[in-house]
Amino acid sequence: MLHMARNGSLPQTEKAFYSRANPAVANQVRILCGVLFEACSIEELRLTCILSVVCLAIGRSSKSAPGRDRTCDQRIRNPLLYPLSYGCLGSWIYKTLPSMASAGWGCFCHRHAAGTSLGWCDMKIRVFLLLAVGWGSLALVQAQPAKALPVKLGQRSPLKLVSSTPMAGAQQLKMRLRAAEMPTELEISRESYEIIVPRSYKKEVPHGLFIWISPNDQCALPADWEKVLADKKLIFVGALRSGNQREVTSRMQLAIVANDQLRQLYEIDPARVYVSGHSGGSRVASMLAVAYADMFSGAVCFMGANFFFPTQGKDGTMYEARYIPHPEMATLAQAESRIVLVTGDKDFNRDNTQAVYEQGFQQNGFQHVRLFEIPGQGHGAPGKEWLERALDFLDDRKKQRL
User: Which of 35, 129, 195, 218 is 20 to 30 A from 399 (CA-CA)?
Assistant: First the structure.
């Protein structure tokens, strides 16, 4: 069992983030409903409700973005706002357009002759129209998926993501890491990524996602690893300027945004969303695997790992706790997350990695964690065969389900 106090639960608006409406959107829905009850007749309200239910049914029956059970899917983030808004719009069109077509011109001529200001005859109609169009437009904008530059299959390509996700927000990060200070917000418009989509990618065949956190500003990856990822049907993505000199929370945010947005750009298998890195990037990956266990199903940590309890090396060196995950996320990771720690007998992080594995993950009951120790391996990136072995272990859960 985890040796940690369960200090409360995750807030309901944050725990199951992929199925809860944004609080700001919830407020918009409440305001909209209040105005509707004030401005509309019973018949209009009845029609609005019917059309809203129809919109909701159409949305539920249509194919949603892949991985909706593990990501903040833009198309279902506010499930009430979208159908309600367009129910309002449909109701307004059905009820008022015919009468406005016949009465609107006469009203305009009368007011123009009288010298009064231009406007609709019925203030209620104008309010109803503005609300329906306004909230409907907001819902449509929020439902738009991520956009990216054209990507050539099988080639490393630049990637710009125009949208962030609430899961990478400062408040969310502070809560999940139990941080004492508020992290800095990430300005995604200033960030850049690199992506490699396998040449074999097709929408009909969902792929996995391999999110890389580099120890330097370049998205470095051994060349022979790219073929391994392609053969495993994994889309590679890594942020630039995400090296060890950058704030840990910013590096985490970059990986979280990539996780969320690429699920909307591509058909992603939610059971194969992996985070990985080397050295300092690997330490960040090990933190995400626990603190964001609901977004990342597995992690491969090459030559570096952190844990949330102090550990002690065989030579007596103490390794302090680097973060404190929310208990609910730690419990989820304990039961479900698949994590591989990779080190070598000549790696200067070997003692630390072994301590994290034995005194951290093993002693605290993490069920799916493995340690690979490579003979003769130093701190550099290992050969492709070790990446293959690590991915085979992560994919093992997928095989068990088939």
Answer: 195
**Unique residue bearing structure tokens 């072995």:** 389
* Residue 108 within a domain: yes
Q: Please tell me whether residues 179 and 276 are part of one structural domain.
A: yes
Residue 1 lies in a domain: no
Count of domains for the chain? 2
Burial 218-242, CB ≥16 within 10 A → b, else e: ebebeeebbebbbebbbbbbbbbbb
The C-alpha atoms of residue 156 and residue 158 are separated, in whole angstroms, by 7
Note whether 264 and 317 are same-domain residues.
yes
Domain presence at residue 147 = no
This prediction's pTM:
0.69
How far is residue 101 CA from its own chain's centroid? 46
Type and span of the H or E element at 156: strand 156-159
Q: Give the residue numbers spanning the domain of 111.
A: 12-142
